[in-house]
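task queued by scheduler; priority normal; single chain, no ligands, no partner chains; default sampling; output format set to structure tokens
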Amino acid sequence: MPYIDQFFRSLIREGASDLHVGEGQPPKIRKHADIIPIRDTPVSRDEAIRMLSEIAGPRSWEIFEERGDFDFAYEMNECSRFRCNFLKQTNGYGAVFRLIPARIASLEELGIPAVVKQFGDLRGGLVLVTGPTGSGKSTTLAALIDYINKTHARHIVTIEEPIEFVHENQRSIITQREVPAHSATFPAGLKAALREDADIILVGEMRDLETVSLALTAAATGLLVFATLHTNNARKTVDRMVDVFPADQQPQARTMLANSLRGVLAQLLLKRADGQGRLAVNEILVGNSAVSSIIREGATQKLQDVIVSGKAQGMQFMDDAIWAHLQQGTVSPHEAFMKAIDKNLFKKFLPDEEQALGNSGGAGRDDESRAPWDAVKSRSRPAR
């Protein structure tokens, strides 16, 4: 048994989401946003090497030593799988491990609005799932792919770094490719997918101009493309997709995005008021003629009005989703204020001493809970 497995078992017993290992400091776990040491003794150089090299294997350890960082997935047993990031830091070796749930939760179990299933029923176009690091994008995408797998006969090609959730073929054929083990880069994997009789392509992360350009091209050719971005709402997502292009190419990029964008699902995780993990809140933009016109014009400030007026189509503004949870008492006023886009709407619910601090903080890093998020029912938005 690899030496590090004992630390993984401790993480699972505690119901934590991440294990942090760093030379010169005690190993720590992240449980519902809090970092907790699991022993007092710091990790030594020899212990760090033993912890990491055993599960990496000789070839991967060699790559890590050369590059200074390395991503892969490690399966401790059939019920416990981890996303691993090795890194070199000031004090020596380090690593962060994220527990991947063994079972793929359904969209209903995660509390994702029902309209999101419509994205899985599409035959072409681009759907973007967005949110900060650790906001549960991979978990939500896995649930959406699982829905497609159960209901449609498609060929789905995923390009991930690393592969997190492992899908078994049901009605669909799912080909999962890992960067760099199966394809050197995301752009290389995308180019190959165009020749692999794919109906659906999932791009684990769009990091650069080439990947974004290829994703738009794939969507324009009739494929359904799912991809992720580190943005907090629909407006920022559209702006990011265009801004990655050089200025002289942005008009063409806006046109391509206007023609291909079918939806944006932005996600944040909020601490539950009862302390029992996290719950997801979503902003949902459904592509229509008004959205296309706004993107072509470059007038993304108008997208909020489209979302607010598009409830009948299943659209949802982020602050409305947060407000619904605040009304239900499932999140605290402080948590609602910290994650809201328009903080003035929520400031009045804070205790007087917190109101005095003003608009400090914001929609920062979220951390996935091991438990599925609780389903919730939306209510009306706060009066403006």
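post-processing summary
- Residues 137-151 form the longest helix (15 residues).
- The mean pLDDT is 90.
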